[in-house]
Design brief:
single chain; 76 residues; alpha+beta; Metal Transport, Frataxin, Chain A; three-stranded antiparallel beta sheet; two-stranded antiparallel ribbon; 3 helices; 5 strands; 28% strand
Length: 76
């Protein structure tokens, strides 16, 4: 499980910024672009959802796997 704050920090490092929210999601938009991602408003995200979200945000596959592995190791 990936902490919500870690996922948000990863988006911020990819030049995304907070745009708005709805009942269940937060909207982040990439600066200077029309790329947007919706992040669920939950405290822990499963690995599959985090992987898909970060790939949609434009993070390289290797970086995504390193990010997921870092939090997989910290749970044990």
């Amino acid at each position: 499980m990936i902490p919500h704050d870690a996922l948000i920090n990863a988006l911020l490092s990819l030049d995304y910024h907070y745009k708005g929210q709805s009942d269940r999601t937060l909207l982040y938009k990439k600066k200077g672009s029309t790329n947007r991602v919706n992040v669920r408003r939950i405290s822990l995200h499963d690995e599959k959802a985090a992987r898909i979200l970060l790939q949609q945000a434009g993070m390289d596959r290797e970086e995504v796997e390193k990010f997921i592995a870092a939090y997989r190791c910290s749970q044990h």
